[in-house]
Amino acid sequence: MMLDRRAAAAMLLEAARLLEENADRLSEIDSRFGDGDHGITMNKIARLIRERVPAWGDRSIHTFLDDLGMAVMEVKGGSAGPLYGTLISGLGAALGEEENELEEDGVRRMFAGMLEELGDLTTAGVGDKTMMDALIPAAEAAQKTEGGIAVILEEAAAAAEAGARASEGFVAKFGRARSYKEQTIGTPDAGAVSASLFIRGMAKGFGSLQDKEK
């Protein structure tokens, strides 16, 4: 099964569902060394995704992701709106304007484009205790994984989850949490956790649709 507009819609909706389902957990994590509102902001982003996806229309994957990303950038709640807006628009950045049936190479380009666009917004890398602890491993896994689209997405999701777990052992170097220094060790980064949920939602959404079509 190729990744077409229908599959992309399913992926986004499942990502939104997982974010909403885990909103309280995200805020609880964020409350330890941050403002405690990450779950609230992710709920806003998830709600926006659920509102926009049914109105996709005939826009290409590239155009819809760009439009959705621009809308998410306007969500109030610290840096999450701009970062997630860039993440979402970045998923379509390396796709052609009318490229609406993606094979494995197209999925790899989605992850590469996402990482490139975020690189223009943040200098954070693995070990800095940010969402990049999940997204960089996810993008790297997508590039090196052989197999079908479902396999690539599954490996990216697993790598994102491992990266989020690993963030527990890092000292925060960005945002409000950085003032707590070594105290942040032992707590995962809320952004890394939400990013891992987003990537897991993409994998789960595609996999569920693929199962239905078997």
Average pLDDT confidence is 96
Main pleated sheet: 2 strands, antiparallel
Q: Low-confidence stretches at least 5 residues in length (pLDDT < 50)?
A: none
Shape designation? globular
Structural class: mainly alpha
The Cα radius of gyration reads 16 Å
Terminal-residue CA separation: 10 Å
SS summary, helix count: 9
User: What is the spatial order of strands in the main beta sheet?
Assistant: 1-2
The topology string of helices and strands comes to EHHHHHEHHHH
Beta-strand content estimate: under 5%
Q: Fraction of residues in helices?
A: 55-70%
In total, how many beta strands? Answer: 2
Gist?
By secondary structure, this protein is mainly alpha-helical.
How would you describe what is shown here?
The protein is mainly α and 214 residues long. The chain contains 9 helices and 2 strands; from the N terminus they run E-H-H-H-H-H-E-H-H-H-H. The chain has a two-stranded antiparallel sheet with strand order 1-2.
